[in-house]
């Protein structure tokens, strides 16, 4: 079976590479993924998925039905990218230039090669006629980078229930360098607001809070963990007789309940700093904002990504390791080390909010995410498609014996 999948993946290599380059050539910064969504939808239809649709939030969903209603595997990769700083690039970020057997371009590793690999993983299973007991969902989602996984939430809350499917497992096509990744730390953005009628009191309190928080975190970066903390000086405005100062801070978090603990501690210290200034109010909240998707839908966003972990001994991890080893793609389970605040994956949502065992397996290189001259090795795309197909069949496939590629 594995030889059959591998050989078919090699025959599809040219199409995978071409599709990856086409995706890279099409800009799709967060909240502006419309053109890429259309390309993904068209390619799924060309690859003869059993069901293909674009939901009202812009997510593109393809389904390959199995014999039974469950279990169901979700393959997920996001269509949006961060804005590239074109001045720093040695090539145009949307040229999709090939150099040293790698494709260079915005989103090459994070996460357009992941989209291509997952789409073609489904195609490998479909066209190899390998029977599936359960269902396969391939979902290319919107607003992950800037929207804090808006697309995945709407997918889980609305789109998949509308077709009667609920994932039993999820595989993220995020950059893992063909490793098997089972979690990462999180982060949160906080707004510390100081308000009052006396401008000097408000400014003194806000500046005092900023100074205390700045001095209490002398190390903004950690050699092993990258950025761990940042804080901006207070910004002031006056409106309707009220002076207001806002301090913005971001901090890495390591446990799901760290957000509430952090809110409590920051508010306690900030309130203490304001005690001697009379009628000055201090409020600390997770930063919230509204995002408008390319479909016109508006969604409220809370700026927090919780840390998440799938037990490295969970059956999903064990089965994935076994099938990858059998396919000649041995992968040691690791955790993502995210070097920048505000980086994250949909695993935070899938594991913490929907209780779905989740793992990452993708062609992109971890250190290339959001990098200048971002690139992805072309061979990784083919291996990721083949490896993902093997994992999916290991999870929901019906064992086949005695078949050869010539007989199918």
List the uncertain runs: 402-408
Supply the number of structural domains. Answer: 2
Look at the structure and give the CATH class of the largest domain: Alpha Beta
Please give the alpha-carbon distance between the first and last residues.
Answer: 10 Å
Taking the sheet with the most strands, its summary is: 6 strands, mixed
How many helices? The count is 10
> Residue-averaged pLDDT, rounded?
92
Which of globular, elongated, flat, extended, rod-shaped describes the shape? elongated
Widest beta sheet: strand line-up: 1-2-6-3-7-22
- The amount of helix comes to 25-40%
Structural class, by secondary structure, is alpha+beta
Strand content: 15-25%
* Gyration radius over CA: 23 Å
Condensed summary:
The protein is an alpha+beta fold. Helix content is 34%, strand content 25%.
Question: If you had to describe this structure to a student in words, what would you say it looks like?
Answer:
- This protein is of the alpha+beta class.
- It folds into two domains: 2-184 and 307-407, 3-Layer(aba) Sandwich (Aminopeptidase); 186-291, 2-Layer Sandwich (Alpha-Beta Plaits).
- Helix content is 34%, strand content 25%.
- The chain contains ten helices and 23 strands.
- The protein has a six-stranded mixed β-sheet with strand order 1-2-6-3-7-22, with helices on both faces. Strands 10, 13, 14, 15, 16 and 19 form a six-stranded antiparallel β-sheet that branches. The protein has a three-stranded antiparallel β-sheet with strand order 4-5-23.
- Residues 402-408 have low confidence and may be disordered.
């Amino acid at each position: 079976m594995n030889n059959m999948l591998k050989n078919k993946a090699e025959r599809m290599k040219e199409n995978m590479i071409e599709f990856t380059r086409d995706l890279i050539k099409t800009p799709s910064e967060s909240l502006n993924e419309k053109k890429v969504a259309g390309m993904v939808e068209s390619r799924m239809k060309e690859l003869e998925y059993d069901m293909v649709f674009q939901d009202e939030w812009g997510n593109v969903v393809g389904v390959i039905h199995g014999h039974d209603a469950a279990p169901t595997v979700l393959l997920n990769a996001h269509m949006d990218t961060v804005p590239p700083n074109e001045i720093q690039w040695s090539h145009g970020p949307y040229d999709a230039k090939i150099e040293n057997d790698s494709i260079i371009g915005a989103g090459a590793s994070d996460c357009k090669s992941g989209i291509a690999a997952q789409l073609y993983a489904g195609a490998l299973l479909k066209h190899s006629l390998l029977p599936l007991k359960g269902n396969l969902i391939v979902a290319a989602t919107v607003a992950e980078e800037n929207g804090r996984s808006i697309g995945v939430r709407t997918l889980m809350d609305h789109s998949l229930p509308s077709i009667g499917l609920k994932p039993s497992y999820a595989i993220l096509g995020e950059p893992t360098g063909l490793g098997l990744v089972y979690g990462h730390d999180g982060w949160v953005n906080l707004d510390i607001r100081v308000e009052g009628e006396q401008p000097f009191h408000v400014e003194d309190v806000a500046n005092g809070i900023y100074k205390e928080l700045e001095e209490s975190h002398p190390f903004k970066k950690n050699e092993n963990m990258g950025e761990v903390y940042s804080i901006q000086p207070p910004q002031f405005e006056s409106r309707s007789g009220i002076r207001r100062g806002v301090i913005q801070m971001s901090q890495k978090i390591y446990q799901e309940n760290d957000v509430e603990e952090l809110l409590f501690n920051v508010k306690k210290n900030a309130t203490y700093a304001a005690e001697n200034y009379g009628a000055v109010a201090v409020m600390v909240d997770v930063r919230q904002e509204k995002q408008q998707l390319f479909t016109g839908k508006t969604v409220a966003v809370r700026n927090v990504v919780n840390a998440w972990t799938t037990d490295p001994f969970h059956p999903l991890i064990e089965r994935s390791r076994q099938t990858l080893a059998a396919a000649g793609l041995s992968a040691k389970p690791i955790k993502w080390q995210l070097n920048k605040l505000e980086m994250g994956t949909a695993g935070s949502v899938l594991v913490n909010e929907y209780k779905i065992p989740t793992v990452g397996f993708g062609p992109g290189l971890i250190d290339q995410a959001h990098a200048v001259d971002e690139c992805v090795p072309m061979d990784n795309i083919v291996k990721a498609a083949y490896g993902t197909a093997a994992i999916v069949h290991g999870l929901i496939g019906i064992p086949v014996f005695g078949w050869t590629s010539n007989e199918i």
